[in-house]
Automatic annotation (TrEMBL), chain A:
It comes from Oncorhynchus tshawytscha (Chinook salmon). Residues 646-761 form the TMC domain. The chain crosses the membrane at residues 325-350, 371-391, 406-424, 498-519, 574-594, 717-737, 766-787, 823-847. Belongs to the TMC family. This is Transmembrane channel-like protein.
Automatic annotation (TrEMBL), chain B:
It comes from Oncorhynchus tshawytscha (Chinook salmon). Pfam families: EF-hand_7. The keyword DNA damage does not apply. Keywords: Calcium, Magnesium, Metal-binding, Repeat. The gene is CIB1. This is EF-hand domain-containing protein. GO terms for molecular function: calcium ion binding; magnesium ion binding.
Length: 984, 189
């Protein structure tokens, strides 16, 4: 007998299970096994709990009864369900019996958990066998939570099953859930329970559906639960890998059941409420589904992207999906901007030419409509709704009393808020999906084997490329494995890497300096007469920035050749460097711009003073001339009014120009770098000295990372510029729309699939992370200007106010009831803000600590798995002594149940002797095998009584009940593996 | 074949939505594509089957090295000829759809890779799998030595119980760790 802390009953059950195993060779092993496990799950907790106590004979009897009848039942089941179809799973089941037997000789506690796990894992498959199993699975799932409570209920469940076996499925299920319901309700009332169970099961199996009024409360609860269960089953049905026909049948049955019994539930008032709830729930489901359908119908370019996918695999398509996502985001931003700012101003604000800020100055009027001026966003463009300066500072406009300045500020800030929310939500959702991906090195070959094919590929050419790339990667990794860690000159490599980074730093610094220099120079140019400047001098900044963006990435790539990183790591480095470049450029540009803005502020102050001085003079002159104090304001046409430089509009224009030049450069690059190249390669190939298609220029590949980064930075500029140029968002929407079609066309017509096919997968969140970073970085300057810089005094919605955010104060004071103002004052009190910030910091700290804990737990688990695997290897390769030591080590670890138990993995000796398997260890332990064999024989013939007899060992020497995890004290038949070390 | 979409009964449509990971549009599209594959005389049979050759002619499957396996796995035909009914076809699309769970995807992936249908991936299966992945041409094929090495490496990594084969749970264990399995195990009509 196993000298473990298992109780006699557990042991007995085990043996019964085993004898069933021995008995059945074919047919419904899976189911049998399942039942077996199920029973064990049921028993073992109890077995664990009663450690050290003698089992009462009554209970034993019960168990035996159950076991026996179960066996009978199983045999029946075998005959019954022979029409089942999944043969291959059955084969698997056969093969797996080995594990099961092994599992049996494990500690019951470990078993308990592990069995539960494996039951769940195999659940769907076993469920495929017959309907009853289905229910057991779902029961299993729900039981997980309240297993302890329901142990009793479960037992009777199985009894009910037996009773109801020949009856209708429904009534059977009912009995089950009855029992379960009881289990939940009467958990304190152990004795009554059995009786009640019996009662309920009998009542339910007699088919009581007619008289619902006579249902007791418990039955209703049970029925409710049953209905819920069915609903759950309906909801999860699609997750089961069965044939459609079976699912359809099951679905219909479930639906019919729910239909039938749903209305009957509830009582009196409760009934109506329940019915109401049910109807609402149904409508909700339908509505949700319709809504989902609607949503998917709204997603544009599905076919276009699919076409790209089938030609280039998922990686290139991921760029287009990202582009589409960006388009959606910008559409929403555009909706805000247009609906709440631009449209009200156009509809209700003063018309063009009514006030100075809405009029082109006299000096510029002659050229205001010139194409070149408009192209620089001067002239009429500058004095239009597209830019900040056009908006009036009236507190309310139109009949609706629309508060435009307030709306302008809130939309400007709200754009950031919304974008942040969306980006973070998307990131969170992305990180939910996909495995942990942490153990990269562990499964290199397996991943290459099982997951390298991209099923989206539908183009033979791409498929050929893919074959080639997979072959290469196989070969590479084989070579890698063979000469693993063969270090050549590490010093040279290190030196080269440092050198490469030095180069890159130099070029980054150089580009930053260049931009600063150019922006400074452009400010000097701006002071000169516009007519004497050439086109280049006017657009120097944009040209230089675009050129840098064009030249630097390939340069970096060339430098990166020195480093000899793995392509994936190289890609990350490359991305990081390009990111740094763009960021550096953008921020240099911003700083230069701030210099400019400060200068303009000075200038504005001067002009303001001059204006005031002029006005005063005008008043003085007027009063002396007319000799009156009643002075009318000076009548100057709006075009002639002296006005300040309006730095906000200038900043806006800079951003719009930058965006436009970015668009131009991108499109031209595609046109020249891809299209013209492709045309040349295609048509000049006939009359060229070498093969152009295979040789040097070849066709372009789609540069995913570069394109994504370009998109991200473009978005950063939009975020920054949107506050100063509301039209920028609209422009960006147009850009994204056109580039979707343009790039789709370009990629399909002139690019070739990648030779090395990277997969999209993880990089998705990487891009999102970059986007978030850019969003944050573009948030900074805008918020800085809103909070600190004074707005221009004669243009824009905030003119005349000391700070932009004064609009909010104004609204609170004038439009909202006084108490809200009070609340606001309190809320902005540092006494409240500081604790709030503190609280947040604490929360962050706490969450951080928890996540670290989880990480540690994860690592621990991983290590344990690793250990279990290593042990496995050892056991296979080496002698037993080592593995015994290892085993004891594992046994001493806490949380033992979390390790995949070695028993499941270990090749069971007894089993091997039967099957004659290939493991060499069999021969070593003939004694154990023999004993086992004998025992088995006995069990087959005299299942229960014999096993009871076998329990002769008193539970005493098994050690204290708490220390259930120690190594076995005596020679273990159950382990079947060498003599365990004696315990002291 | 614009009218065929309406042939799909409404209640059936909603049931299919309940049972698959597909949306209404996708089911309708699937039905349309399926009806296009049917020959004239088949259309009057209550549950028509499309022979495997026709299914394989779909552009989505045409260049897939596992196309025959996919048909065999999803076929409910008694003759084992890989022919598909509409429901089988939906099963296929559902398993390969975007929103299918990892569990179901890995289950079917396992069955697709299990070339001899014996419930485990043994050496023979893996060899066939490698040959599928490296293409039919000789220049991309691996040598016998490489193949042996590769398969032993794979078994070393993923065969946890060391019985020389990869079974479903081992397979799912490995696959669940893969970052890009879910995103690449997709077929969209």
């Amino acid at each position: 007998m196993p000298p473990r802390k298992k109780t006699d009953i557990a042991i007995k059950m085990e043996e019964v299970g085993m004898d069933i195993d021995g008995e059945l060779d074919s047919g419904h092993e899976d189911e049998v096994r399942w039942r077996d496990r199920n029973r064990k799950v049921k028993l073992s907790p109890r077995a664990g709990g009663r450690n050290g106590k003698q089992a009462t004979s009554e209970e034993e009897e019960e168990e035996e009864d159950e076991a026996q009848s179960k066996r009978a039942h199983k045999k029946k089941a075998k005959v019954q369900d022979s029409e089942e179809e999944d043969e291959e799973e059955e084969d698997e089941a056969q093969r797996k019996r080995a594990y099961k037997k092994k599992a049996k000789v494990q500690d019951s506690e470990e078993e308990d958990e592990e069995e539960e796990k494996s039951v769940k894992r195999k659940g769907p498959k076993a469920a495929g066998r017959n309907k009853k199993a289905v229910k057991q699975v779902s029961e299993e799932e729900s039981e997980e939570e309240e297993r302890g409570k329901k142990r009793k209920g479960r037992k009777s469940t199985i009894k009910n099953q037996k009773e109801g076996q020949n009856k209708e499925k429904k009534s059977d299920a009912k009995g089950k859930s009855d029992a379960k319901g009881k289990g939940v309700k009467d958990k304190g009332n152990e004795k009554d329970k059995k009786k009640k169970n019996a009662k309920y099961s009998s009542s339910s199996s007699s088919g009581e559906s007619g008289d619902e009024d006579s249902l007791s409360e418990g039955e209703i609860a049970a029925q409710k639960e049953e209905v819920e269960e069915k609903k759950k089953l309906i909801a999860t049905l699609r997750n089961k890998p069965w044939r459609m026909k079976r699912r359809l049948k099951l679905l219909k049955e479930c639906q019919a059941f729910v239909e039938k019994f749903e209305g009957a539930l509830g009582k009196g008032k409760g009934r109506k409420l329940y019915a109401y709830k049910v109807i609402i729930a149904k409508k909700m489901i339908k509505f949700n589904r319709d809504f989902d359908n609607f949503k998917t119908a709204c997603i544009p370019w599905e076919r276009k992207i699919k076409e790209v996918e089938s030609h280039f695999g998922s990686s290139v398509a991921s760029y287009f999906i990202f582009l589409r996502w960006m388009y959606g985001l910008n559409l929403v931003l555009f909706g805000f901007m247009f609906g709440l700012v631009v449209l009200p101003e156009v509809m209700m604000g003063l018309p063009y030419g009514s006030i100075p800020r809405k009029t082109v100055p006299r000096a510029q009027q002659a050229k205001a409509m010139d194409y070149s001026v408009l192209l620089d966003f001067g002239g009429y463009c500058k004095y239009s709704v597209l830019f900040y300066g056009y908006y009036n500072d009236e507190r309310t406009i139109g009949l609706l009393q629309f508060r435009l300045p307030l709306s302008y500020l809130l939309v400007g800030v709200g754009i950031f808020g919304y974008s942040l929310m969306v980006v973070i939500r998307t990131m969170a959702r992305n990180s939910d999906e996909g495995g942990d991906g942490g153990d990269d090195g562990q499964f290199t070959f397996t991943f290459k084997m099982f997951t390298s094919w991209d099923y989206l590929i539908g183009n033979p050419e791409t498929a050929d490329n893919k074959y080639a790339s997979i072959t290469t990667s196989f070969k590479e990794s084989i070579v890698d494995e063979q000469e693993n860690q063969k270090d050549e000159n590490i010093h040279l490599r290190r030196f080269l890497r440092v050198l490469a980074n030095l180069f890159i730093l130099c070029s980054l610094g150089g580009s930053g300096f260049l931009i600063y220099f150019v922006v400074k120079r452009s400010q000097d140019f701006a002071k000169l007469d516009q007519n004497t400047l050439s086109w280049y001098e006017k657009n120097e900044v944009e040209v230089v920035m675009s050129l840098l963006g064009l030249v630097c990435p390939p340069l970096f790539e060339t430098i990166a050749e020195l480093e000899e990183y793995h392509p994936r790591i190289a890609l990350k480095w490359q991305l990081g460097r390009i990111f740094a470049l763009f960021l550096g450029n953008l921020y240099t540009f911003l700083f230069a711009l701030f210099d400019d803005v400060n200068e303009k502020l000075e200038q504005e102050k001067y002009i303001k003073n001059a204006t005031i001085w002029g006005l005063k003079e005008y008043y003085a002159n007027y009063s002396t001339f007319h000799n009156t104090t009643d002075i009318p304001p000076p009548e100057i046409p709006p075009a002639d009014v002296i006005r300040g430089p309006c730095w906000e509009t200038d900043v806006g224009i800079e951003f719009v120009k930058l965006t436009v030049s970015d668009i131009q450069v991108t499109y031209l690059t595609i046109l020249i770098g891809d299209f013209v190249r492709a045309v040349i390669v295609r048509f000049l190939n006939y009359c060229w000295c070498w093969d152009l298609e295979a040789g040097f220029p070849s066709y372009g590949e789609f540069d995913i990372s570069g394109n994504v980064l370009g998109l991200i930075f473009n978005q950063g500029m939009i975020w920054m510029g949107a506050f100063y140029a509301p039209g920028l968002v609209g422009l960006n929407v147009l850009r994204l729309l056109s580039s979707m079609y343009y790039q789709c066309w370009a990629v399909m017509s002139c690019n070739v699939p990648h030779e090395r096919v990277f997969k999209a997968s993880k990089s998705n969140n990487f891009y999102m992370g970059l986007l978030l970073l850019v969003l944050f970085l573009s948030l900074l300057p805008v918020v800085y200007t809103i909070m600190t810089l004074p707005p221009s005094s004669d243009c824009g919605p905030f003119s005349g106010r000391a700070q932009m955010y004064d609009v909010v104060m104004e609204t609170i004071e004038k439009d909202l009831p006084a108490f809200i103002g009070n609340i606001f004052t309190y809320a902005t009190n540092p006494g409240l803000i500081i604790p709030a910030v503190l609280l947040m910091v604490l929360a962050i700290y706490y969450l951080n600590a928890t996540s670290k804990n989880y990480q540690n737990a994860n690592l621990e688990l991983k290590r344990k798995m690793q250990m279990a695997r290593d042990e496995e290897k050892n056991r296979r390769n080496n002698k037993e002594s080592t593995n015994q030591v290892m085993h004891d080590l594992v046994g001493l670890l806490p949380n033992r149940s979390l390790i995949p138990p070695p028993a499941e993995e270990a090749p069971p000796p007894d089993n091997m002797s039967e099957k004659g398997s290939k493991f060499p260890k069999v021969a070593k332990r003939p004694g154990a095998v023999k004993v086992k064999g004998v025992n088995l024989q006995k069990d087959v013939s005299l299942a229960a009584p014999n096993s009871r007899e076998a329990v002769t060992r008193p539970p005493g020497p098994r050690g204290p009940p708490g220390n259930a995890r120690g190594p076995p004290p005596g020679p273990g038949r159950g382990r079947g593996r060498g003599a365990p070390p004696p315990r002291c | 074949m614009g009218t065929t979409a309406s042939q799909l009964r409404k209640d059936l449509l909603s049931e299919y939505q309940e049972l698959t990971f597909l949306t209404k549009q996708e089911i309708i599209l699937a039905h349309k594509r399926f009806s296009e594959l049917l020959s004239k005389e088949d259309r009057n049979i209550p549950t028509p089957r499309v022979p495997m050759e026709k299914v394989l002619s779909l552009p989505e499957l045409k260049s897939n090295p596992f196309r025959k396996r996919i048909c065999h796995v999803f076929s409910t035909s008694d003759m084992k000829d890989g022919s598909l009914t509409f429901e089988d076809f939906l099963d296929l699309l559902s398993a390969f759809s975007d929103s299918a769970t990892l569990e179901i995807k890995s289950h079917y992936a396992f069955r697709i890779f299990d070339f001899d249908d014996d419930g485990t991936l043994d050496g023979g299966d893996l060899e066939k799998l490698v040959n599928c992945l490296t293409g039919e041409t000789d220049d991309t094929r691996l040598t016998t030595e490489e193949m042996r090495q590769l398969i032993s490496n794979i078994l070393e990594e993923s065969d946890i119980d060391k019985d020389g084969t990869v079974n479903l749970s081992e397979f799912q264990h490995v696959i669940s760790r893969s970052p890009d399995f879910v995103s690449s195990f997709k077929i969209v009509l």
